[in-house]
Amino acid sequence: MPRFAVILPAAGSSARFGAPKLVQDLAGIPVIARAVLPFIQRADTHQILIATPNDPFATAGPSQQNLARLDNRLSAGRANELWDALSREPAVKNRLGGQIALVPGGPTRAESVWSALRRVPADVEWVAIHDAARPLVSQDLIDRTLAAAVEHGAAAPAVAVPWTIKQASGPLPARVEKTVARDALWALQTPQIMRRDRLLRAFDECIYPMQHITDDLQLLELAGEQAWLVAGDERNIKITTPQDLMLAETLLARR
Ligand code: CTP
Ligand code: MG
After folding, report:
1. pTM for the predicted model, two decimal places
2. Residue to mutate, 7, 13, 113, 212, ligand 1, most ligand atoms under 8 Å from C-beta
3. Handedness of CA 49, 54, 57, 62 (dihedral sign)
């Protein structure tokens, strides 16, 4: 299997969580460190780029790939907070500034990914984009997504949608337009794995505003490229609300 660069978009504002969710403790290890750990345990991970909030700390040296930590601890911003959370896990701390680099993110998830993507060296053929808010990703999931990406060009894990879905426009109450066939719907997870150059080109060609781009395969679809889904994992949840953190604790306790 080829080596790949990992991009972790971590520049969000945790609005639905109500507090910075990526630095929260999850069974002794911060959420963001848990999202990084499975990748640093792999021999095929070339480097890990973490897109961090573009606050005064992050803009201290936006042209550099490794944003050196400011000595002045008073200038702590959200990027600094992420650095601290990452440093709490020794295996991650050892690689900060080396295999793991913090880069400035952007105002949307897509722009955060793009910012990191432009910093991936041209000789790295594949990129895996993984939400920093998914701390429970397994090696098996990474393996099968990578295998499908290499076979088909681009792949992501997905799980069946368990709900009955109605289509209706506008805020509720609203009149039902139709029931959507559930067997053709898949809820997307990460990592999403694709060729670096294809994704770069898809960004260049994208004519839609970046806030409409909610995942990375979508860019390839818009560029007319193939994208495949593989079996996701119900445990590979994204931390969105405090309830998700409680669920993650429970899932970890059962591992
Ligand atoms: N993300 C990012 N840059 C942004 C927005 C989001 O890198 N401008 C990242 C988040 O940090 C997260 C991932 O994309 O790891 C998925 O986004 P989401 O779960 O929506 O996180 P937030 O945007 O932080 O949460 P919310 O939408 O509730 O504010
Ligand atoms: Mg968001």
Report:
1. 0.92
2. 13
3. positive
